[in-house]
Amino acid sequence: MPDGQMDAPVAPPADRYINRELSLIEFNQRVLAQTADESVPLLERLRFLCISCTNLDEFFEIRVAGLKQRVEIGAAASGPGTLTPQQLLDEIRNRVTRLITRQYEMLNDVLLPALADARIHFLHRREWDDEQREWLSEFYREEIVPVLTPLTLDPSRPFPRILNKSLNFVVRLKGKDAFGRRRHRAVVQAPRSLPRIIRLPEHLVEPGTEGYVFLSSIIHANVADLFPGMKVDGCYQFRVTRNSNLYVDDEEVEDLVRALEGQLEASRYGAAVRLEISDQCPEDLIEFLLDHFHLDRVDMFAVNGPVNLNRLSTICNRTDRPELMYAPFTPGLPEELRTDQGIFSILRKQNILLQHPYQSFSPVVDFIGAAAADPNVLAIKQTLYRTGSNSPIVEHLINAARSGKEVTVVVELMARFDEAENISSANRLQEAGAHVVYGLVGYKTHSKMSMVVRREDDGIKRYVHLGTGNYHPGTTRLYTDYGYLSSNKNLGEDVHKVFMQLTSLTAATDLVKVLTAPFDLFDAMIEKIDREIAHAKAGKETRVIAKLNALIEPQIIDKLYEASAAGVKVDLIVRGICSLRPGVTGLSENIHIRSIIGRFLEHSRVYYFLNDDSEEYYCASADWMDRNFFRRNETCFPIKQKPLKERLRQDLELFLKDNTHAWVLQGDGHYVRLTPGDDAPVSAQSEFLRTLSAPA
């Protein structure tokens, strides 16, 4: 048992499942814990702080917003569990309050002093000297004032619309305005065009140091200039988080793009769900803001510092301070690709398994690029869930369409927070002549697959790429994922049938290799776990290993509980939300769950079943969640070649040996971080960097 690990409960708890919202908060606590890890470079620790804040924003925008709506309409909580929506909101409030307190403790007491020791200073107003104050005042007049619109509140000037997650100030005034009327309050909004962190010129700081000032500090110091003739008796920053769920009526909508565009605009001003405000703000102004946004006291969080810590991420990418960053690396290439042969020639001979970001994503981009330029290629089919701006894959698809190739792209418009970018990509593809299909209304297209149809001497041949992650070059540098390139005939025919299903809505029957959701993936997982149970009851060795982002589907969890009771050894590597309670006597003694939190976001999905020594390995786009099994289009594909299976086995075992970045889930829902102790330290991500990336 690792040092500090708690014993599992002696009996099953009343609730068989860990609540998904509370599990998500636990994940965010693990992310935040990276800020205290002195083995992590300083600016990377700051980045983890920012990530924890971004995660919390999304948690309120989506999960808390949904819970509040359930309370309003008197609906029960979704999913299994014993907590009512209101009880859950109360517990969320308690845990988030502790999380936010810890965030600002880490900022104020640990990270800012450490940054100062590294000659990076964030200067508070009280620390400005005369020269700095003069320069900042000039910067304020020249760069900030022209875009500010201070609004004194009166019956003809009601409270302005406050944009989701924007920086604002509530100001207390004394005196009379230019028309002789007494005014008491005003609001100043900071446009998003303004930088939230301003760097001081070198001549204003000590040699060899950097000085930064928060925009909020500059506005606060000069806010009185916005209200001549009146006295500013207080200025306090605040930020409102709004419901960002998008609602499109599957039955009534006639034009999904137009409906979604309207929802995107509306979501910027959705119902308020959280108020963040300076802890110096007096009670009457707090009550004023809460009343205006129709929020209760439990929805307010007072903070000791900037209301939006996410903005600190702007200083994290510092190539000039390599000692404060993770060491750079160059993604490697498999030996098979280190050749002058074309990708199609290589794939005719063998399949290729890539592991990003340790191995380059460029072969995937080049696969589409080569297809776009190859006169023998007849058609390209592609799913796009998240692509990012200026996507090279989208450019290749556009070029292919313009050159006369048959290009079909299934674009998922409802990819959360990437909707606008996906609409833009879809429009450009259509203008180039590609066939664009907007997924399936009611079923997100979450599959990651592409197919190239090529005329060759021996007939038409299909080449495919299937992945666990998105076709997004940016995230492939930060997320761990597997990508599989193949010219296997059966696999190509399966992928062809899945694309036909997405475009024509006809059944994809007689698939030989690929499992799909919402059709057979769930049943296949149940069947494979049942098979391990049968083998265990027959006295055979059994094992299930699954690497996932999330595990919350109750039927799968119950089946794993059943497997544990039968003696099946179950190892789960679940990065984020996990509703299964492991190690509980009488329920899950044979289930062990760990979460890996490190430099890269663990995003790959891999399933393993011992199957009486006829081992099965699958990679997939799907987590084990209700939505992935029943409300999304997902693909799960087998890895059958012996060398590739052996590689996946070694990868999974390495994750299970990690004692540096692993956290072990307890039966009570909390996690304990593993430490090497007297053992040699093992870090899966570090080992992959060492063995798979290009030599330095």
Q: How many strand segments? A: 27
Give me the CATH superfamily of one domain.
Answer: Endonuclease Chain A
pLDDT averaged residue by residue: 90
How much of the polypeptide forms β-strand, as a percent range?
A: 15-25%
Largest sheet: 10 strands, mixed
Gross morphology? globular
CATH domain topology of one domain: Endonuclease, Chain A
What is the terminal-to-terminal distance? 37 Å
Specify the number of helices: 17
Overall description:
The structure is a single chain. The protein is an alpha/beta fold and about 700 residues long. Among the domains are: about 120-270, Polyphosphate kinase middle domain (polyphosphate kinase like, 2-Layer Sandwich); about 335-515, Endonuclease, Chain A. About 35% of the residues lie in helices and about 20% in strands. It has 17 helices and 27 strands. The strands form four sheets. Strands 14, 18, 19, 20, 21, 23, 24, 25, 26 and 27 form a ten-stranded mixed β-sheet that branches. Strand 11 (about 375-385), helix 10 and strand 12 form a beta-alpha-beta unit. The longest helix has about 35 residues, at about 85-115. The radius of gyration is 27 Å and the shape is globular. Residues about 1-10, about 245-255 and about 260-265 have low confidence and may be disordered.
